[in-house]
Amino acid sequence: MFAIMSLAELRSPRFWSAIAAAISGTWGLGPARSALKRVAPYGHHRAVRTALASLRASPRGEDCDPYLHFAERLVADIRRGAGGASGSAQRVGIVSTGSKLGDAATGVRMEAAGVGV
Fold first, then answer.
1. pLDDT tens digits, residue range 22-41?
2. Is 100 exposed, middle or buried (0-12, 13-18, 19+ CB in 10 A)?
């Protein structure tokens, strides 16, 4: 989990395959959630989009919500050119305010380049 967090935070294009593998659940739910929260710089890679679809179709998909839902929306926005193509989606964070993910009230925060939300 911490390795994926560290790699994703570097925002280097060379780590897209590690992010895709984490999203697909290769290393468990912790790394998958970590990658989902940091998917913005990697959303234009086909393997990342395929991993999102694969995770959604698997039984683990429900365990990764709301992170999976938010990542899917973000990647769809990138594909439409509403943020990712120009690099304006700089950082995405999801904050859980409860002790259990399924019961948690979640808040979503997105900071676009030059715009504070």
1. 999 889 999 999 999 999 89
2. exposed
